[in-house]
Amino acid sequence: MLFKNLRLYRLPRPWLTTPTELEDQLRQRPFVECGTLTARSEGWVPPCPTGNPDAYVVTTPDLTHWHIRLKVQEKTVPARVVKAEAARRAVEIEKVQCYKPGKRQMKAIEEEVCVALLPRAFATDRHIDAWIDPHNGWLGIDTASTGQADRILDALRGALEEFPVRMLKVNRSPASLMAGWLATEPEAPFTIDQDCVLKAVTDDKATIRYAHYSLDGKDVQEHLSTGKLPTRLAMTWDDRISFVID
Length: 246
Fold this sequence. Notes:
Number of helices: 6
Strand content: 25-35%
Radius of gyration: 25 Å
């Protein structure tokens, strides 16, 4: 599969866990549907239900790339529904106690309403995919959200006795590196596309956004010369995959 997003993390090189060991651990924490009074449930599911429906870890033939998937199910009650029902109950309670419920009591009423309406709430499902390159020590998560990335990291920590993942550290600032690409050209087979965000490093944080615009013009170079740095840059690899570095 092709990820829509990619958040990269580092694993020890090489990561000595085997696909079989990881498979056994993930099978012990499978996904289970939300219960009647359960607002959220999460667990591991086979990432390729049509191709390999029983495997919790799908690998390439040479075992150099692994694919895993976490399923998250959440039940939510719309806030407006909760407030409307809580307001109705507050009126009834006021008649009994002869004064309006205070903030603390209203909060308790809203919590009771949420619990009462939860069995009738619709459940939404979400999948979070991860790619593992154990030999080179890479973990990639298909999400743009830090919260979703943390969710699958926490799930992996819960499944494994030891999961020494760490944030990616780079030798050069991504902003300065992207600025260098805009000033000259990136190394083949990478090419620059037509979307970019330039931001000033001064206190005013002046921002220039380019969309579907040729980035080899003088105006872009002038912004770079005045100290603005790229925070987003669209690129293509080998005329095959287009992406945005953020």
